[in-house]
Amino acid sequence: MPKVNMPEVAAGATYAVINRWTVEEGADINIGDVICELETDKAVVEYAAEVAGKLTKIIGQPGEEIDVGDPICIIGEDVAEEASAPAAEPEAPIAEAPVAAPVASPVVETPAAPTPAAPVAEAPTRVEGERIFASPIARKMASDNGIDVATIVGTGPDGRIVRRDVEAAIAAGPVAPAASPAPAAAPAAQPAQTSSSTELAPQDYSSSYTAVKHSGMRKAIARRLTESKSTIPHFYLYADCRVDELIELRKKLNEISPVKISVNDMVIRAIAAAFQDVPEANVVWTDDAMLKYESVDISVAVATETGLLTPVLRGVEKRSLSNIASAVRDLAERSREGKLRQDELEGGSFAITNLGMYGTEQFAAIINPPQSGILAVGAASEKVIVEQGQMTVANMMSVTLSADHRAVDGALAAEWLKAFKHRIENPLTMLV
Amino acid sequence: MTERIQLDPLEPWVELKSTKEDWQAADPQLLENMLCQLHLIRAFEEEILELAAEGLVHGPAHASVGQEGGAVGSILGLRTTDGVNGSHRGHHQFLAKAIQHVSPNLKADALVNEDIQKLIQKTTAEIMGLEQGFSHGRGGSMHLQWLEAGALGTNAIVGGGVPLAAGNAWAQKNSGTDDLTVTYFGDGAVNIGSVLESMNLTAAWDVPLVFFIENNLYAVSTSVEEATKEARLSGRGVGFGIPSWRVDGMDPLAVWHVMREVEAHSRAGKGPAVVEVEVYRFFHQNGAFPGSAFGYRSKEEEAEWLARDPLKRVADEMIERGLIDQSVVDKIREQAVAAMKTATAEILEEDPEGKPGSRRIKPGLWPETSFVDVGLRGDMSELEGTRSLEIENAGNLKDIRFVDAIASVMDQNMENDKRIVVLGEDVHKLKGGTNGATKGLERHEGRILGTPISENAFAGLGGGMALDGRFRPVVEFMYPDFLWVAADQVFNQIGKARHMFGGENGVPLVLRTKVAMGSGYGSQHLMDPAGIFATAPGWRIVAPSNPFDYVGLMNAALKLEDPVLVIEHVDLYTQKGQIPEGDLDYFINPGNAKVVREGKDVTVISYLNMIKHSMEAIEQTGMDAELIDLRWLDRASIDWDTIGESIKKTNAVMIAEQGVQGTSYGGWLADEIQRRFFDYLDQPIQRVHGREASPSISKVLERAAIAKTEEVVEGLKRVQQGFGGK
């Protein structure tokens, strides 16, 4: 009865990792209290208790992969019963386990995102199709504001979603649940509280601000990025790449290619080629061992209306440019339609982020754990360069490699970036 | 040795028989009229039975075949302004009164004039449930009413029409007329409380009501001898001091003679009379089979009574006197039957889907189904032009005790409207009744009536006054629980009368009562009647929480053409409030609730003394609650605008009332709110009410059984839990 099982973090997920416990054994748990963070490769979900009672035992340890449906902890007094019933047949995970819907927890900066990912609602813990208890006015307000009640955690009796919960969600801004098929219109954020009220005299307006309460997702992003930046020893390498040939080649390729190939597709291809050139760089650090990847799996950030997704494009080294283009397009479309499989969100050792379309020339990104590198791609633009003592105009593109120094030393990173630059500046080599 | 003194009843009890001399001396026109009426009614009843056999009469058809003599003999001498009402078996009385009204001198050779034909058709149509009937088909066979003819409405509750008839007779007498009312009922009704209470009440007040017992020997299948020891049912009257007659109902002339003696008594202001006629229904309770077919009486008995058929008796006597011959009788019969055939031909047509020769009601003659609720209550046009006032705009105010405000507004209304009559137990004494609410009203002589303890009779008598319309009764129940004692009159009669008879005739009656929770009167005195009355659509309900509202609400209640329940509370009587200086004439009309405290967290809906308790609770919890004083509680009068506006703002509702759960008021309101405002609700509608059991005498148990401030506080906490949030 009091056993809490690993929820199905996303549809089709078979396991998840407990990132950390936010409560300790012996704590009194109320329904709705966050007790731990569950992590998949692409998301960290705050898991809220569905039952109340004392947290009598923590079963799942941080870092452990735990199959969906296996117990993670015991809430309630009935420890003896649990102990006397070991290896009990796992109960049907969906019926028993309140399951977390994942909320995207992007740790890469948004490339190509028309609106910044601004996840809002606290992560509710429920499975797809589960009956959602919400008061009539809560449903109506959510609907009027384009918010899916499924994204809201209820704080009313028995977890009912009540007016105040929706008001909080509205105040927090639009929702971005990962893989959620429900598109949410982006409503104007309602200020939860403001220093300027209608009663104030005009002279008081000068110091006005609006306090928007943190959503659970916002907090998760903050925590993840802080964790990444504080635990991964980042270092940065910059390179200016001349992309005249790349642009020319792209033009020609697009004359014959069945799908339109973007500069970004070519950058992805160049990254894969660079890893083929320097396979020692295709690694991931873990506490116990270095994981050496054989294929090149790259996370590609996709902006959707509901937020940012980072599906993984696998085996990029084996793909042609047109294949990359169509695969990225497919991933992007299915991201927007909410049809990605969980496995498509998992894995990868490297990521690409591109803010070039905003005109950003150069920037550095934060690594998405547990990956060991991310390439930040700036805008390609005409620059005056000196070539063989002559000033000339060329199309230049700045890239910044952020690398995990635990896995990749400076020389290795430099070697990889050199290979990348060579490939991008000699794009025909990517075609052979 | 004890001494034995013979006691005699106050009034005589006699049996009257006609003699040959009486028949010889009878006015030929009277006899012709008698014979013609008997035949019209007989042909009518036979045709109705035929229609019933064809399945064309929905519901029962209680035929009077065999019993016509009593009705015709008694009604022939009446005026249009005299009233009659009757029971479920009332076609003959209704027709006799209506025929007497439209055609007081029937002619044997030209029996059916246009008015008679119209009357027959309209009555047939009503019995068949058709739009052209007297009550648009709502009343049918058992609720025949034509007020213009003095037919007050027959009644399907055995004995239920008797108190109403008493009210009609009271109104006749107190309007300065010497009209009287005859209430017809059967042997089955003679043992029921309404009848016996009414005998007592009308005798006490010398009300000109004739209790006309059609003793047909069987209440369905139960014989009179089985049902009572004194099978000479007129004997009932003597015990109440009512002169009583027994007469053969198969002899219409004998009945006519009895009625002349009754008139001499009742029209002279000497009070009621009891007339028992022995009659015989030739058929079973309903339908066209004889009673013997059901085994409760013998064919021999039936044959004996058939031989005494009043139609035959009158015809034989007239032939014997040489006034007519058999051919005239046959001609009368022929005309009566033809009139019925003509009437049904107007209503029926060949059934295109039925067997050859089968008939159906012409489809266009049914009432529109949209008519179903029309006229449940009046349109309130009587309130047009009244002056509304709220205390905020009232100008100079003065302090007044609640109970004095009641007496004041009643006194003012009785002064301005001589139609208002107050009746109830002890209302005329004890300086304003048991609570002082009628203090000073005794100056309105003859219009403040202390009643015997018989709520069914005096509530019904009030109902009869209201139906008559010349008076506006204000009935007081000392405690609300007495509504159960008077339930037939309150709900079946007063509440339904307007609608049942077609929705056009008002029932301007005010019923005052006081909630007494907290007074220690125990399980049978401490209900809140609001919930029960709210189930009766004919009733409007007000429940004032302060003297100012009481004045405005009572003025509206007295003006309305609908029955209005005015609920008071013992706790409020001694409380002081404010009313305008020198102004008792303002109105608070239906549809006007009052927001007595504005707030945004929860809408608290309450009334009566619970307004004060709710306010205290809100202050104690510090919640920002909006408190609505309903003032008008019934379905038709409630202020949905104010309620809705508040709910749309707060999204949470709590209904607070004092009384027990079972009869509580809030149930229907919660139901209606969730239908109307579902999308605006953020939590279940919370309710505060008493416990399941009726409050006990024991002080602590009584307190535990009811809701006051503390219970409202608890309710508000439940609402707070429902808010959620962290």
**Main pleated-sheet profile of chain A:** 6 strands, mixed
Number of helices of chain A: 9
Proportion of beta-strand residues of chain A: 15-25%
Q: What structural class do you assign from the helix and strand content of chain A?
A: alpha+beta
How many whole angstroms does the radius of gyration of chain A measure? 24 Å
What is the largest interface, and how many residues per chain? A-B, 17 and 13 residues
Bulk shape of chain A: elongated
What is the averaged pLDDT score of chain A? Answer: 77
- Could you give the order of strands across the largest sheet of chain B? 1-7-8-4-3-2
End-to-end separation of chain B: 92 Å
Indicate the multimeric state. heterodimer
For the CA atoms, what is the radius of gyration of chain B?
Answer: 29 Å
What is the average per-residue confidence, as pLDDT of chain B, rounded to a whole number? 96
Anisotropy-based shape of chain B: elongated
Give the helix proportion of chain B (percent range): 25-40%
Estimated structural class of chain B: alpha/beta
Care to count the β-strands of chain A? 20
Largest sheet of chain B: 6 strands, parallel
Helix content of chain A: 10-25%
**In total, how many beta strands of chain B?**
23
Order of helices and strands of chain A: EEEEEEEEHHHHEEHEHHEEEEEEHEEEH
